[in-house]
Amino acid sequence: MQVFCYFFTESQINFNFDDLIGFYVGLPMQLIFQLPALSNYKPSLNYNDKSVWLGSCFAENIGNKLNDYQLPTLLNPQGIVFNPLLIFEQINQALSGSKLLDKYLFEKDNLWFSYLHHGSIYGSSKENLIELISQNNEALKDALQQAKWLVISAGTAWLYQLKDFNLQVANCHKQPSSFFAKNLVQPEEIINAANTTLALLKQLNPQLQILISVSPVKYLKWGAHENNLGKSSLLLAFAQLIQSHNNLHYFPSFEIMQDELRDYRFYESDFAHPNPLAITYIWEKFKASMFDIETLNYFDEYDKIQNQIRHKTLHPDSNAQQKFRENLLKTILQFKEKYPLVVFDNIYTKR
After folding, report:
1. pLDDT score, position 316
2. What confidence tens digit (pLDDT) does each residue in 120-136 have?
């Protein structure tokens, strides 16, 4: 048996071996699509600046980050709201000071609730509930008057209406489904409602900047197609609004989740809500584009202190641990002196 071997020289073939190896080894491996880097929002937000956060549970997730850092933040004083029409209506109610109509109120299990508000807003009596809502409205109006930024996160354009009164509701409060009709709010309706509210806000606080976002939370209980319809109406409306108002800006939380974090490992087990890893990822994007350098440094220093506070030791009575506590307390006092508006009450405990 004869075996023939033939060796090709580089001149006999039409490509270079070094180039071939370089193609496979040197090719950058980009495993996800990344949105273009976000430009910094102007004016930037400082740790001393007040901000108001309204809307979906995603507003809660990011707004709670600011609360964790003890920034002056008002977060959903009337509870979580998903549809933009109801977010705008709550703002209108707060700014006008108008009394909530009785037809919004109802009793359930010896408690009183409002169809215009989340289930976390309730009273032991109708008068008690009205007083609570009135106080929350005053807090919202006061915060909007002082705020540098208002952040609105809308979840869906789907909206429930209470049939008997033809009322648009923010929450069904687990009442029978036969009480309600579900409708898809069109972009034009959102735009008209937004323009009314934006005009009122401009009168109240001409310097207020407004950041709007579509929540990445999916509404899969209605079906994937219905979820996309609800998001699409929001996206179309917000795109037109931004073109018409120079104090209106857009943050792509929905796009980051859909295109950068599209794998289901970034969702909770319900496949609808972003998990802590995804929330942290979007928070980092938001933080880099919204806050000034001074505040980013503040975050870093705050995190270092928190990490030291969480430090645990097996030998709490050792000399080394005593020294550690002394140094930590000194660091906290220096931090409070540098950032006098930050309150560190009860933040330091012995371990």
Report:
1. 80
2. 999 999 999 999 999 99
Give the sheet arrangement for strand 209-214, strand by strand. Answer: 73-75, 51-55, 149-154, 209-214, 248-250
Q: Which residues lie closer than 8 Å to 251 by C-beta, 6 or more apart? A: 38, 151, 211, 212, 213, 286, 289
Cα gap 124→147, rounded to integer Å: 32
Yes or no: say if 143 and 51 are a contact pair by the CB < 8 Å rule. Answer: no
Quickly count: other Cβ atoms within 10 Å of residue 215's Cβ: 24
Summarize the confidence of residues 4-17 as an average pLDDT: 51
pTM attached to this predicted model: 0.86
Average pLDDT over the chain, rounded to whole? 89
> Which residue from 68, 90, 63, 221 is spatially nearest to 149, judged by alpha carbons?
63
Question: What contacts 77, CB < 8 A, 6 or more positions away?
Answer: 136, 137, 139, 140, 143
- Structural domains for the chain: 43-291 (3.40.50.1110), 301-351 (no CATH)
Rounded to whole angstroms, how far apart are CA atoms 118 and 121? 6
Report CA-CA distances (Å) from 211 to 122, 151, 157, 237.
29, 5, 18, 14
Give kind and range of the element (H or E) at residue 197: helix 187-204
Q: What's the rounded Cα separation, in Å, for the pair 205 and 140? A: 13
Task: Name the H helices within 12-83.
Answer: 17-26, 57-68
pLDDT of residue 315: 78
DSSP annotation of 263? S
Q: Determine how β-strand 180-184 pairs with β-strand 158-162.
A: antiparallel
| Residue 66 to residue 21: CA distance in whole angstroms | 49
Structure confidence at residue 26 (pLDDT): 56
Q: Which two tokens stand for residue 211?
A: 């950041």
Q: Beginning with the edge strand found earlier in the chain, give each strand of the sheet holding 122-123 in spatial order.
A: 105-108, 111-114, 122-123
Length of the chain: 351
